[in-house]
């Protein structure tokens, strides 16, 4: 390892050395813990010969709708078992409903949705985003299909040709009704649309004159799920009596029924959601679906070796849900759209206990959620009112945070100077007790003397670690917030096409390593041994660079800008009277240490 000289480097051990290493060890442990968690939640690669996951008995596969016919001809030539004329279409048709936010294409086969385009969002190829996961829908069912507890009825309803109230294109506000009657089954599905992301569904299924429980479903997945992280972020979300819950895939059982009260419930991934808001929360019930799908041919890969289809199967969890009412008559609103705070907070319902609840809890940032939420609100404010680019907004937010932390860093440097001033006394105490072994009780007396010297001189042994301890929660909150904010999805800055994805050119990780090294190099560490200082100056940049290599470039941008701010600040502070005194003390100690070996050798 090449030698280098740190202008702020000092010799000697001490309590501060141990406290610094405690912080560094904590950072490394957290980083690798988070990386391990992400690997555990990524899709597993299995052999293509592995048996397919079995589906719950309550679920049936829905075949894809066939190509729509050019003409529609409802017919009533046949009769039901009760003698009433059948109501079913002669051919398949489509109806499109759209507003400024979406374009929904229905097919009358199963009266379900073939595509659900969100006009304000793009997929990874730059096309308008279709929220229907086509591969999953072909196998597990399309959105707004019906789910009953009878597999035979499910199969009939999926294949039935309903008679729509209209075909062609409807512009919201609008209402679309599908009717079907045959073989003793009478089905009516009515959907009402307005100018928002929310629609209303009115569904009723009657068999031989008696209502049966038919739930309206979002059977599985979202169209933006095209990489490992997207599948890992899928979950079931629900609110019971104004208390929200979020169930990861491993906690979701296929075919399980959750009875009310349910304020709202459904499924989501990192950025989008399909959530039911029942008209009657008390009598609502939710069925959860958990299937597995081989996405080896469709998944997008990032990082080294990306781009080519995998020869092995890649099985991922596909979550879905269906909501109904115990009375057999389902009345519910359905939100299908982005998990954006500005949208979610305006969608509300009344809980079973009379409390008003919104969909805002859908966007949750984990353990550091409270900090992450306010970090994003500050970031959003900068984006809306100062600069209209998310990358520059991250830079400005980083600078603002570092300016606020500047007084704390000055206090830390003052604490470091006090530590240097008493270092000769601490060295003398250590010299007095060095003949005792580390487990000797006399060592406790040494520690007591050192602590007394520190206390008498107003030195806090953890003073040098306070800025790091304060910044760590901000860093971890930013880490948990970044991949869950739909506003940052596909947000570009400079050469980076997506701030939530790794830098495709690896520039940010390289800048991170360089800035972290310079930060370690210029920052004084009172009481830390020179060899330890050298080791940390190389080890920490490599650890953080590796971490940023596979994570969202927005985090690396935040981190690197903070490092460069700290370098500039330290460069200025090193030239103040405080900095000059620290360097003079360090130089005197270095000269004493340089002369010590010669004196000892002469005695020998």
From TrEMBL:
<keyword id="KW-0472">Membrane</keyword>
<feature type="transmembrane region" description="Helical">
    <location>
        <begin position="389"/>
        <end position="410"/>
    </location>
</feature>
<comment type="function">
    <text>Required for the insertion and/or proper folding and/or complex formation of integral membrane proteins into the membrane. Involved in integration of membrane proteins that insert both dependently and independently of the Sec translocase complex, as well as at least some lipoproteins. Aids folding of multispanning membrane proteins.</text>
</comment>
<keyword id="KW-0143">Chaperone</keyword>
<dbReference type="Pfam" id="PF02096">
    <property type="entry name" value="60KD_IMP"/>
</dbReference>
<keyword id="KW-0813">Transport</keyword>
<dbReference type="InterPro" id="IPR047196">
    <property type="entry name" value="YidC_ALB_C"/>
</dbReference>
<feature type="region of interest" description="Disordered">
    <location>
        <begin position="43"/>
        <end position="90"/>
    </location>
</feature>
<feature type="transmembrane region" description="Helical">
    <location>
        <begin position="365"/>
        <end position="383"/>
    </location>
</feature>
<comment type="subunit">
    <text>Interacts with the Sec translocase complex via SecD. Specifically interacts with transmembrane segments of nascent integral membrane proteins during membrane integration.</text>
</comment>
<dbReference type="InterPro" id="IPR028053">
    <property type="entry name" value="Membr_insert_YidC_N"/>
</dbReference>
<keyword id="KW-0812">Transmembrane</keyword>
<feature type="compositionally biased region" description="Low complexity">
    <location>
        <begin position="68"/>
        <end position="78"/>
    </location>
</feature>
<dbReference type="InterPro" id="IPR001708">
    <property type="entry name" value="YidC/ALB3/OXA1/COX18"/>
</dbReference>
<dbReference type="InterPro" id="IPR028055">
    <property type="entry name" value="YidC/Oxa/ALB_C"/>
</dbReference>
<dbReference type="GO" id="GO:0015031">
    <property type="term" value="P:protein transport"/>
</dbReference>
<protein>
    <recommendedName>
        <fullName>Membrane protein insertase YidC</fullName>
    </recommendedName>
</protein>
<feature type="transmembrane region" description="Helical">
    <location>
        <begin position="20"/>
        <end position="37"/>
    </location>
</feature>
<keyword id="KW-1003">Cell membrane</keyword>
<feature type="compositionally biased region" description="Low complexity">
    <location>
        <begin position="47"/>
        <end position="61"/>
    </location>
</feature>
<dbReference type="GO" id="GO:0051205">
    <property type="term" value="P:protein insertion into membrane"/>
</dbReference>
<dbReference type="InterPro" id="IPR038221">
    <property type="entry name" value="YidC_periplasmic_sf"/>
</dbReference>
<feature type="domain" description="Membrane insertase YidC N-terminal">
    <location>
        <begin position="96"/>
        <end position="377"/>
    </location>
</feature>
<comment type="similarity">
    <text>Belongs to the OXA1/ALB3/YidC family. Type 1 subfamily.</text>
</comment>
<keyword id="KW-0653">Protein transport</keyword>
<dbReference type="GO" id="GO:0032977">
    <property type="term" value="F:membrane insertase activity"/>
</dbReference>
<feature type="transmembrane region" description="Helical">
    <location>
        <begin position="458"/>
        <end position="479"/>
    </location>
</feature>
<dbReference type="Pfam" id="PF14849">
    <property type="entry name" value="YidC_periplas"/>
</dbReference>
<keyword id="KW-1133">Transmembrane helix</keyword>
<feature type="domain" description="Membrane insertase YidC/Oxa/ALB C-terminal">
    <location>
        <begin position="390"/>
        <end position="575"/>
    </location>
</feature>
<dbReference type="InterPro" id="IPR019998">
    <property type="entry name" value="Membr_insert_YidC"/>
</dbReference>
<dbReference type="GO" id="GO:0005886">
    <property type="term" value="C:plasma membrane"/>
</dbReference>
């Amino acid at each position: 390892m090449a030698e280098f000289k740190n202008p702020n480097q000092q010799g000697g051990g001490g309590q501060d050395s141990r406290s610094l290493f405690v912080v560094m060890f904590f950072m490394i442990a957290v980083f690798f813990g988070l990386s391990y968690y992400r690997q555990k939640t990524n899709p597993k690669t299995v052999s293509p010969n592995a048996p397919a996951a079995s589906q719950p008995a309550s679920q049936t596969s829905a075949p894809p709708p066939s190509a729509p016919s050019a003409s529609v001809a409802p017919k009533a030539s046949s009769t039901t078992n009760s003698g009433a004329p059948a109501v079913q279409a002669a051919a398949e048709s489509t109806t499109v409903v759209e507003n400024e936010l979406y374009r929904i294409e229905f097919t009358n086969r199963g009266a379900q949705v073939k595509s659900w385009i969100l006009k304000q969002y793009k997929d990874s190829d730059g096309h308008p985003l279709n929220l229907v996961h086509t591969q999953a829908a072909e196998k597990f069912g399309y959105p707004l299909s019906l789910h009953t507890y009878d597999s035979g009825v499910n199969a009939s309803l999926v294949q039935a040709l309903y008679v729509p109230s209209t075909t062609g294109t409807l512009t919201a506000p609008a209402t679309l009704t599908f009717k079907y009657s045959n073989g003793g089954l009478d089905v009516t599905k009515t959907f009402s649309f307005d100018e928002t992301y929310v629609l209303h569904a009115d569904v009723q299924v009657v068999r031989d004159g008696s209502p049966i429980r038919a739930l309206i479903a979002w059977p599985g997945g979202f169209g933006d799920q095209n990489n490992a992280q997207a599948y890992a972020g899928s979950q079931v979300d629900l609110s019971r009596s104004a208390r929200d819950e979020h169930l990861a895939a491993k906690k979701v059982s296929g075919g399980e029924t959750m009875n009310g009260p349910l304020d709202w419930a459904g499924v989501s991934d990192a950025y989008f959601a399909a959530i039911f808001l029942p008209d009657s929360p008390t009598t609502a019930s939710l069925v959860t679906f958990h299937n597995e799908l081989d996405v080896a041919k469709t998944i997008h890969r990032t990082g080294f070796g990306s781009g080519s289809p995998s020869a092995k199967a890649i099985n991922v969890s596909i979550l879905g849900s269906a909501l109904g009412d115990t009375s057999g008559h389902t009345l519910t609103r359905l939100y299908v759209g982005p998990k954006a705070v500005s949208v979610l907070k305006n969608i509300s319902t009344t809980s079973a206990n009379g409390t008003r609840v919104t969909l805002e809890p859908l966007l949750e940032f984990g353990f550091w959620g409270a900090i992450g939420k306010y970090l994003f609100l500050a970031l959003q404010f900068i984006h809306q009112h100062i600069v209209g680019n998310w990358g520059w907004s991250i830079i400005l937010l980083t600078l603002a945070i570092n300016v606020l932390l500047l007084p704390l860093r000055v206090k830390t440097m003052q604490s470091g100077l006090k530590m240097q001033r008493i270092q000769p006394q601490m060295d003398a105490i250590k010299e007095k007790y060095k003949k005792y072994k580390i487990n000797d009780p006399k060592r406790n007396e040494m520690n007591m003397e050192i602590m007394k010297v520190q206390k008498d001189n107003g030195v806090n042994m953890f003073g040098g670690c306070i800025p790091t301890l304060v910044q760590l929660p901000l860093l971890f909150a930013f880490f948990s917030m970044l991949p869950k904010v739909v506003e940052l999805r596909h947000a570009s800055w400079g050469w980076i096409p997506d701030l939530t994805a790794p830098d495709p050119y690896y520039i940010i990780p390289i800048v991170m390593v360089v800035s972290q090294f310079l930060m370690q190099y210029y920052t004084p560490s009172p009481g830390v041994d020179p060899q330890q200082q050298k080791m940390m100056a190389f080890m920490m940049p490599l650890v953080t660079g590796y971490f940023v290599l596979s994570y969202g470039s927005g985090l690396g941008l935040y981190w690197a800008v903070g490092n460069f701010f700290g370098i500039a600040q330290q460069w200025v502070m090193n030239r103040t009277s405080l900095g000059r005194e620290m360097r003079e003390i360090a130089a005197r100690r270095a000269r004493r240490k340089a002369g010590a070996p010669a004196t000892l050798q002469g005695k020998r």
